[in-house]
Every structure is written in structure tokens, then in C-alpha cells.
Write a structure and sequence with these properties.
Layout: H1 17-24, H2 32-44, H3 48-68, E1 73-77, H4 87-94, E2 99-104, H5 107-117, E3 123-127, H6 133-138, H7 140-143, E4 152-157, H8 166-178, E5 185-191, H9 198-201, H10 204-213, H11 223-229, E6 233-235, E7 241-242, E8 259-266
Parallel strand pairs: 1-2, 1-4, 2-3, 4-5
Antiparallel strand pairs: 5-8, 6-8, 7-8
This protein binds S-adenosylmethionine.
S-adenosylmethionine (SAM) is lined by residues 17-18, 21, 55-56, 59, 78-80, 103-106, 109, 129-131, 157-159, 162.
């Protein structure tokens, strides 16, 4: 399903996950309702802001790993608002010819993204529902920029915990990973149901209840399930681990944040 362009102004009294996340990252594209819900989230999960920042930092390290392995195209599913170290800025620092397509269903994220990317010929944002890969992959902003024959990094970062059905998640990952040339990669992060550190997951049930009540049900999954759902890829070292421990920038083991992350190469199904 292509997400319809909003007929009028979006209702800013309804909080949005894209804008709450922007608030946690210190961005400027959020409104009173988003900030109020963000404050309630922090009451339940005091590390929520730190986790959002760490997730964005994981995304940056993962994008650089994909660039190092030769990916010059990026399809960022559930991208949020492309500010605060967004994928195109990271990619273009490394290679100005890299092409980046953002996809999000939040009308404000898309409207802000269009303004930010106006005149940028190598990055676009498309309003679409990531659970409809045919619509996403055929959307003009996607098909017009990404060459399906080229190796492409598919990013599903902190986005698939909004999809409740495990088998749908597996099918979506399979479809997106199969849509591009040899050498394609997957970057994935997802809320955890089984982190060893109880402090990292305290408040998770309250957070899920709050997310459900505010219209954005959130599913957490355990490591075994997430590895099964991402079986289409061969993970780079260190595998599917907490994002704080996926090649942490600083020396030492890195914090446990209650979110799993993985970067993998898409397995060639013909082998
Ligand atoms: C927590 S933010 C993550 C942003 C970014 N991927 C990151 O990790 O930095 C989740 C984003 O997924 C988007 N989203 C949720 N469900 C979606 C769907 N079915 N289709 C497209 N976007 C979706 C939300 O609008 C939001 O912007």
C-alpha cells in the first residue's frame, strides 16, 4: 500500500514515533504531543533517550561497514526524519555519488524530509508502508534512484518491531534482500525480549502498554527468533548482538541497551 499524501495538515496532537525519536535524538522536528509522550516513555524506561542515541550511532557504524564492503546504494525502511547524522550525510562523506532512499509512513517525517532533501539528486524520501514491498520498490522515488542490479544496503533499523507477525517480518526481509544485486547487505536492529541485563529491559512491559494505547503497538523479540527472521543473511562479526556491543566506537565491551543489532551480507540463493 502506498501511503496517501495527507489531504490536509497532519494532526499534530497525535504523537508519532518518528517525531518522538527525533526528540530523543535532539532534533528540532517534534511537537508538544510528541514531547509529552516522550517524557512518559522516559519515566517508564529511563534509558530511552540513551538507547535512541545509541541506535542512531549503531546505524552510523553499520552504514560505514556497508560502504567498506562496496555498497553505494541504501534503502532505509522506516527511516524516520533524516536529521541528526542521517544515512545520506554519512554515506556522502565517504562517497558523494552514493544514493540513499528513505521510506517512512509518517507524513510529517516525509514532509520534513522532502524539505531537507530538496535539490539533492542522490537522496530522496518516499511515503510508503514498508509492509508492502511491491509498492515500496516500485515507487518512483525508489525505482527512480536505486539500480536493482547494484549491491544495496537494506536498512531496517528500529522499524520492524512495529510489525507484529513474525512470518511477515521474515517474508519482508527476504523480499527486500532479494530485490538487489550480489553483494547486497542488511542492517537490522530490533527491541530485545531476552537481554541478560535486567536494568536494560526494565519498563519494557509498561512501554509496550503505552505504545499500544498510543496506537503504535511495539513487539519485542528474543535473539533466537530474530536470528531465524534474519536467516537470509550471513552476519558480519560480531553477529547479532546488543547494539552497544556491535563494534563499539570506544574501547571496552560497550553498554547493554536492550536492542539487538546485526549487519549481514545477503546470501546468494543460487549457491
Ligand atoms: C524508531 S524510528 C527509527 C528511525 C530510524 N530507522 C533509526 O533507527 O534511526 C521508527 C520509524 O519507523 C516508521 N514506521 C513504523 N511503521 C512503519 C511502516 N509500516 N512503514 C513505514 N515506516 C514505518 C515510523 O514512522 C518511524 O519513523
Amino acid at each position: 500500500m502506498t501511503v496517501p499524501e495527507p489531504a490536509g495538515e497532519p494532526d499534530l496532537s497525535i504523537p508519532s514515533s518518528a517525531r518522538i525519536y527525533d526528540f530523543f535524538l535532539g532534533g528540532g522536528h517534534n511537537f508538544a504531543a510528541d514531547r509529552a509522550l516522550a517524557e512518559r516513555i522516559v519515566e517508564l524506561v529511563p534509558a530511552a533517550r540513551e538507547t535512541a542515541v545509541a541506535n542512531r550511532a549503531f546505524l552510523g557504524r553499520a552504514v560505514r561497514a556497508c560502504l567498506d564492503r562496496g555498497c553505494r546504494q541504501f534503502l532505509d525502511l522506516g527511516s524516520g526524519i533524516p536529521t541528526v547524522e542521517p544515512v545520506h550525510e554519512i554515506a556522502h562523506r565517504h562517497d558523494p555519488s552514493a544514493r540513499v532512499v528513505y521510506v517512512d509512513s509518517d507524513p510529517v517525517a516525509v514532509a520534513v524530509g522532502r524539505d531537507l532533501l530538496d535539490g539533492n539528486e542522490s537522496a530522496t524520501i518516499t511515503a510508503a508502508d514498508l509492509t508492502d514491498p511491491d509498492a515500496v520498490l516500485s515507487a518512483p522515488g525508489v525505482a527512480g534512484l536505486l539500480d536493482p542490479a547494484e549491491p544495496t544496503a537494506v536498512l531496517a533499523v528500529a522499524a520492524l518491531h512495529y510489525v507484529g507477525d513474525d512470518e511477515l517480518v521474515a517474508r519482508l526481509l527476504d523480499r527486500y534482500c532479494s530485490a538487489f544485486g550480489p553483494g547486497s547487505m542488511l542492517v537490522f536492529s530490533h527491541g530485545s525480549a531476552d537481554v541478560d541485563d535486567p536494568a536494560a529491559v526494565s519498563g519494557t512491559e509498561d512501554l509496550q502498554r503505552l505504545a499500544r494505547d498510543s496506537g503504535h503497538p511495539l513487539v519485542v523479540r528474543d535473539r533466537a527468533t530474530l536470528r531465524r527472521l534474519t536467516a537470509r543473511v550471513d552476519p558480519l562479526e560480531p553477529g547479532l548482538v546488543d547494539i552497544g556491543r556491535w563494534r563499539p566506537g570506544e574501547p571496552g565491551p560497550g553498554p547493554v541497551l536492550g536492542v539487538y543489532g546485526l549487519v549481514g551480507t545477503v546470501r546468494d540463493q543460487s549457491r
